[in-house]
Amino acid sequence: MVFVLICANHFNSILNIISYFHDYEEDILRNILFERAEMEFITHPERSDRYVELALKLSTKYNTKIPEKWKRRYCRKCKKFLYPGHNCTVRLINSEVNFFCGECGHVMKIPYRKEKKIKRRAKYESIKKRNDE
Fold first, then answer.
1. Residues 2, 67: one domain?
2. Is residue 91 located within the same domain as residue 66?
3. 88 and 66 both lie in a single domain
4. In terms of residue numbers, what domain contains 95?
5. For labelling, which of 24, 26, 29, 103 has a CA lying 20 to 30 Å from the CA of 14?
6. Is the pTM value of this prediction over 0.70?
């Protein structure tokens, strides 16, 4: 009973923060919610899932995007917070980063060809500079 009251008070304080910052940028709120979800995951995973839900609701309400940093930290199917090594597995397969959700089994595939291309270009430019000297 006491735990339920503490959680209710905790969510009310988060909602008060959201209403207080209503005039400010929503990016700050989403970052706050995702950072809070990361901190709370080990002790209260259900609370971190709730924070992700709130951040997603904010992004749909204000029609803004989730920052690139946090885009890969939740499952797009079940909307759970993903913490690699606990409820998520990350693998590099065929020039893709695969995130396996341990909750629902969904696989998010994100290509990393662009990073490889940038790395090759930087290597080529450094060789070219050495040859010019």
1. yes
2. no
3. no
4. 82-133
5. 103
6. no
How far, rounded to the nearest angstrom, does the alpha carbon of residue 6 sit from its chain's CA centroid? 26
Task: Report how many domains make up the chain.
Answer: 2
CA angle 38, 42, 45 (to 5 degrees): 80
Distance set, CA 5 to CA 9, 10, 58, 87 (Å) = 6, 8, 25, 27
| 27-80 residue pLDDT tens | 677 788 899 999 999 999 899 999 999 888 888 888 888 888 888 899 999 999
Q: Which amino acid is at 93?
A: I
Give the distance between the most distant pair of CA atoms in the chain.
74
Q: What is the CATH number of the domain that holds 16?
A: 1.20.5.420
Residue 51 neighbours by CB distance under 10 Å: 25
